[in-house]
Amino acid sequence: MKHLLSIDDVTADDVSTLFETAAEMHDVQNRSVKKLPALRGRTVINLFFEDSTRTRSSFEIAGKWLSADVINISAKGSSASKGRACATP
To answer: Of 36, 44, 61, 84, which residue is least crowded by CB atoms under 10 Å?
Structure first.
């Protein structure tokens, strides 16, 4: 599943896979080394338009647990808050 836009898009197999993945991630958090190599060598950039320490921290931790380099950007001081267009590579 690439995008979840409606519960109508979810199959019983999707729900089963979701719970299996959650159980695996729970097991990872009980290990001494809490990292998986899934995003090794990749960079995750989180852009937040609203202040939320809990959400920002959760996304940052998730990226790091998957071995990604994580960059957090707040829209308040960025070009996005000034009405400038943001380009993506």
So the answer is: 84
Helix ranges (H only) for 1-89 are 12-29, 53-65
Q: Which two tokens stand for residue 1?
A: 């599943």
Side chain identity at residue 16, one-letter code: S
| Among the listed residues 78, 3, 76, 72, the one whose alpha carbon sits nearest the alpha carbon of residue 44 | 72
Tokens of 12: 């019983």
Domains of the chain and CATH, by start: 35-89 (3.40.50.1370)
CA distances from 78 to 1, 14, 53 (A): 32, 37, 17
Q: Using the structure block, give the residue that is written with the tokens 């089963």.
A: 16
Backbone φ/ψ region at 67: left (φ over 0), alpha (ψ -120 to 50), beta: left
On the question of pLDDT at 80 being above 70, the answer is no
